[in-house]
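Sequence in, structure out. First:
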Amino acid sequence: MLRRYLLTTALFTTLTALQGQPDADHRPGVQAFIDAVKTGSPEAISQWISYPLTRPEPLPAISNRAEFVSRFYQVFDPELLEALAQSSIDRDWSTVGWRGTCYKDGLVWLEQDGKLRALNRTSKAEMAEIEARMARIKKQVHPSVAHFKAPISEVQTASFRIRLDELDNGKIRYAAWKRPNGTETAPSLVLDNGRIDVQGSGGNHAYVFENSGYVYEVYFQVLGTGEEPPVVLRVYQGERLLSEQAGEIIQP
């Protein structure tokens, strides 16, 4: 949740000056999306989603139309459906450069063809599911790291399993386990002084932790060629790179 907030804040700060009413290239897509929402049909709206549709951690992303239909009423509550259906292109929607078109300063983001690619809103049903998942996660990890405000991510490399969590005091914690040890065991390293380093406006970012002259960096590749690993763990001693391991994101 912290990760999503910081990245979204950085994006809006960079692009606010570029906002303007949807132009001729974007208006047809926006209108088509609104028309689909007016039907209230999960199947109809599912055709206007750019997959995967990311949801707040620890909820899994919605990967395809079938998953969208099954989770439709969890994501789109009546209040959101009515607001979008009654929205006005000229009053409520803005085109923000090459980023696309947004509703209400970024609540919803559409691509040029009208497909929804980001929904920065969490329904009550999703909040209930988040709380249930967090309760399960806290039971699955070692008691020493079971207290946190919100999960950020869990990743796995060839040698390590790593959890990143936002703590109640707003700090970011890094907890690592040497594989094959599971997260129910005591972690081999815990650091709670992390910071986020947002790199550009494409969403690429890293969580950086320092410990006695060593720097641990967990880098997330959001925008790239598609050939890069989604996450990379790097360890430095001063400026010298000691190790680098590609990894994958593990769904809680």
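Second:
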Amino acid sequence: MTGFLEFRLTSMRPAVQLPPSCIRNDYHMRMSTESNSWMQQQASQALIISLILVAGLATTSIAETNNLDGPAYVPGTRPPKPWTDSYAERGDTTHTVPFTVVAGRGVGGSQALEVPDTGLFEGYAVYLLPQPLTSADGPRRISVKYDPPQPAPDGYMNFLTYGGAWIGNGWMQIDTGHRVGILFKLEDWGFKSYNAPEDFKVFTPAGQLGTFVPSVGANYHELVFELNAAWDTMTFTVVTPGGASLSNSYAWDGSPIDKVWLGPATDQYVGQTAAYDDLVVDSSSAPAPEIEIQPASFATVSAGGRAEFSVQAKGGDDLEYQWQLNGNPIEGATSATYVIPSVDSSHVGEYRVVVSSGGKSVTSDPSVLSLVGVNTCAVVVLEGPVGAKYRIDYTDDIEGASGWQLWTNVTLSASPQALVDFGSNHSHKRFYRTEPQP
């Protein structure tokens, strides 16, 4: 008697449970009122008051980015409020600070704000914060990018100061309030054609922070002011165009912050201007992101299977993710979940994710991905008289030209008797036939 059996070798892959999604709700409120009668006016006022109360209770963070590229910023003109100067705020029409928007001088060729030297005591561009910052807001961060004036074409340097930024409250003219700043200064100034590199210094109230190098073209430094949670310490940081970071700290009296001053380069000779871009008021000085749920420590997948890594983190409004394999960033793996649709040996290794927000980051625990080798073999079961002899042939393609090949000859020692074909573990399917032997 001759027959054949078909064994199809298949694999079962584990189901993957997707992590819960994080949903961010953005709310925008717009209100307009008309007052055609006394009653309608009173109702509108009551509505305004109630909205202010609700907003006051709900507002816990303030975030604002001003890159000077919006429709209100027209090159060649002075930007509208909240930009102003101290003279305009006091109603002084005899003085003005002619700071203007310029095209092409900003970061990456965008627009910037140029502040010329006017010789005025308060010749600063002033930015009024739409909502003053207070200690109730917790840790805060204000930053602006500043491009010091380039050297004069004739090589002469005669800047008393090179410009800088200040934050605080009150006004300088009447010496009210409290403010601190980061000042760029030519220390040994005068009518001379050369100044030593160490003469170009950066100062804060805590003392000299470092030096800078004026140069032709965009030379933006990031000036950063960070307040701690207690609002008793201000940390000043200057990030150079090359990425170096210089910092020191000074006491802050806890008073509110409602203004940012951007200073001119006080110039008695060469006619250059200071430029500013990317004014940011945010809460990036909040604690670094935290990982609430780490990736699974181990993942074992068969070749061709699906692998998934996920993390759940908190801290900051805009979390950024970068998955790594053996310490190297994975291109395109920039979300809370990373999926490999079909795993092969190149994917084996140690996976981590770096979660970032506001310049601070945290790295997850490792998750080790390994391949599991599953040897799935065919089993042939024979039934017949004990002592009977059989020849067993096999083929991997019953319709192909390879034909049948001898697998083994067997004498039954029991009935039924199971025989394992260990050579079938690399075959997707295999067929068998048996022939009784004399």
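Remark: The radius of gyration is 36 Å.
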